[in-house]
Amino acid sequence: MFFPDQEDDVALHELDNGNEPLLPSQRKNLPRLYDYVLVAEKMEDMEDQIFKKQDAFICELKQKNIKVTKIERAGKVFFGICAPEEMFAKYKYLLKVSDACNWSGEQQCDLSVSYCTRIRIVHFVLNNTFIGSGECLRDLLYQGAFESIFCLHEKKEQKKLRTKWASWFAVMKLFQQPVTDIKDYFGEKVALYYLWLGWYTRMLIPAAVIGIVVFLYGLAFFNTSPLIHEVCDSNIIMCPRCDIRCSVWNLSDTCSNAKVSQLFDNEGTVAFAMFMAIWATLFLELWKRHLALHVSKWKVFDWCEEEEELILEIVNNPQCKPKEFRHSYLRSIVVLLLVTLVLVVIIGLAHALVICRVLTAILLSQSDWDFFRDHANTIAMLSGAVLHYITIQVMTRINKIVAFKLCEFEKTRSFAATEKRFTVKMFTFQFFTLFSSLFYVAFFLGRFNGYPGNYVRIGGKWRLEECHPSGCLTDLFIQMAVILVLKQTINNIFEFTVPWLKLCLKRTKAKTMRKKMCGNCCRKACREEEGNFNLCNPCMLRSWLENYDLNDVNAFSLFNEFLEMVLQFSFTTIFVAAFPLAPLLALINNIFEIRLDAIKMVSLERRLVPKKTNDIGVWTRILEAVGVMAVIANGLVIGISSDFIPRLAYRYHYGPCATSNSTSLDCMTGYINNTLATAFMSNDKVREDFKELIDNGYNITQCSYKDYRSDEDQSLTSQFWLILALRFAFVILFEHVVVMCKFIAAWFIPDNPIRVKNDRLNDKLRRLKKELQEANAIYDSRSTDV
C-alpha cells in the first residue's frame, strides 16, 4: 500500500525547495495547481548540451515566477508547470482596458477560475520563453531536450462532455451540441468548428432531399425514356474503341450505361444545379447570422486578434517591443512562382493519370479474357478513379510539407499569420490534387480525340479514350462516386481506429508500470475531486501519465478537420450537377463525423490548446470562393459536358416535333441516331486506322461514331456550330442569373440579426453609464476632499 506521506518512494523534487512537499497545504484552495506538463528523457550526463539547454529553459521559467515541479520515474522526467496568479491578473486588467473589451457591466470575467484561459496564457508564455542561445521551446522539442508538452484534461468536465456529446449514443441527438460547454473546455476556436459543422450538416438536409427528388425523377423515366429504348434496341454498328484487338460493337452494348446516364443527366439536373449554387450562398449568409448570435453570447464579438497578441506579449515580457508588420515583394514573387510550380506538377500528375487510363484500356482490350476485353473502358475508368484516390493520399502529405516550407520562407510575424497563409496554400494544393482529374473528365475527356481517319494519338501511337454514346457525364459520376465514397469511408475508419488502437496499445503496455510507479491511494478526497484539485502525490502522477498516454496533438490538428470538411463542401457543390446524391452522402457522413471527432478529441487525444476567436478565419473566404467556382463549374458541366443543350436543340429544331405536325412520335425519337456520324471504309484514311480490323476478316463497309460530322467529307455540320453557340449562350445566361440570385440573397439577408445589434447597443450603453458613474464618484470624492 502506498501512503501520501511516502514521498521518498516517488522521487519527487521541488525545484524551488527540495524539501517542500508536492502539494502544500496552504495552496489547497487554488483552482488548479498545474497548467502544463513537460516531459523529457532522463539524462545522467549533466554536462550534456541537451541537458544544459533543458535546465536553462526551466531556469528561465523560474525567473518569471512560474512554479516547476519535477518528477523522475522509469527513465522519464515530468515537469509540472504552474503559473503565478499575478500573471492572470495582469491579463485580466489589460483586457479590461483594451479597445476590444466586449463585456457588459453585469458580466465581468473572472480569469482566476477559468482554466481554459489559463492554458492559453501559459501556452503563449512557454512558447515565447527563450534561453540564452536564443532558442525557444519549439527548438528544444525539435532537438530532443523535451519529448512533449501537454495540458491536462479535467475529469469532471471530460465526463460531462462524454455524456452529453462525445459518445456514439449521442448520434441520435442529430443537431444538439453543447457548444457553450465545448467553448468552456476547448476554447472558442474548437467550439466554432463544431458550430459550423453542425450548421453545415443541418443545411445539407434540404439539399439532400432535393437531390433525392432529382434522382427519383430520372428513375421515374427509367423504363419509358425513348433515349434508353433507342440505345438498348439499336442495331447500329459502332467503330472500334482502340486499334489493337478491338472489333466493332453494337450500340446496344451500352444499354446499362445509357440507363445510368439517364438517372443523372436529365432536365431536373439543371434546376438542381441552380438550387445548389443559391444554397451555397444561403448557407454562408445564414451561417454568419448563426455565428453572430453565439459570439455575441460569448462576449467575443469585438475581440481583436492583434490586441490579444499584444496583451499576451506584455504579460510575458513587460519590456517587449511589438512585432511590426513587414512585407517583401521579392519574397511574395518567389512564393508565387513556387506555388505555381507546385500546381504545374499537380496538373502534370493529372495528365499522367490520363495516360495511365489510356494504357490500361489498351492493355485490357488486348487481354485473353473476354470480360476484360468487353469492359476495358469501364475497368480503366474505375482503376483510374482508385489510382487517383491513392495519388490524393500521397500528395496530401507532400503538399503539407511544401506548404510548411513556403510559410517558413515567408517569415510571418505571428503564428496566426502563418496559419492563415498555410491554410490558403494547403487548400489550393489539395483542391488541385482532388479536382484536376475531375476537371479533365468533365471538360476534356472525349472532346479532342479526333475521328476515324484523323485520330489524336499520344506519342503518335495510342488513341485517346472516348466517351460512350450516352455521354461523358457518366464517367464524371463514377469518378466522383468512387472518390467521395472511398475518401469519406476510408478516412473516417483510419481517423478513428488508428488513434484508438494506439491508445489501447499504450495503455496496455503502461498499465503495469503505472501501478508500480504510482502505487495506490485510499484518500476519499482524491476520489471525490476526480483528479481536478488537491490530489495526493500518486494520484497526481497517475493523472499526468494518463494524459501522457493519449495521442499527441499539434497546432494544426483542428486545421485537418476543417480541411476535410471544406473539401467535402467543394465536392458537394462544384460538380453536383453530375452527382445529385453527393449532398446525401455528405449528410450521412457528417452525422457520424461530428461524434467521431468529438470522441477523438475528448477521449483519445491530449487536450487541444484553447484559442480565442470570433469567426472561422480565412475559411469563410475560401467557402465564398468555392461558392463562386460552383456556379462556374455547374454551368459548364450542364452547358458543355451534359447532353442537355443538344437535346433541347433536337427537340425544338431537328426532332419530329419541330419538322412535322405529327404528334404520334415522341419529340426525342431519333435523337441518338442524330448524334452519330458515319465513317465509310472506302475512305483511305479510315481504312488505315482500322487496318487490323479489316485484316482479321471483318467484312464491314461502315461504322458509326459520336460527332456532328458530314458522312461525305467528315467536316463539321451546321448543327455542331448551332449547338456550340447554344452551349456558350447557356453558360453565360446560367452564370449571370445564378450570380444575380446570389447577390440578391446576400443583400437580402443581413450578417448580424437585429437581436445581436440591439444587445450590443445595450451592452455598450451600460458600460458607458458605469464608466460615467465611476468618474462622477471620483470627482465627488475630490470635491469633498477640497
Automatic annotation (TrEMBL):
Name of the featured protein: Anoctamin
Family membership noted in the UniProt record: Belongs to the anoctamin family.
Protein keywords: Membrane, Transmembrane, Transmembrane helix
Annotated transmembrane regions: 203-222, 269-287, 333-364, 376-395, 427-446, 566-592, 616-640, 720-749
Localization terms from the record: Membrane
One GO CC term on file: plasma membrane
Location, primary (coarse class): membrane
Superkingdom of the source species: Eukaryota
Molecular function as annotated in GO: chloride channel activity
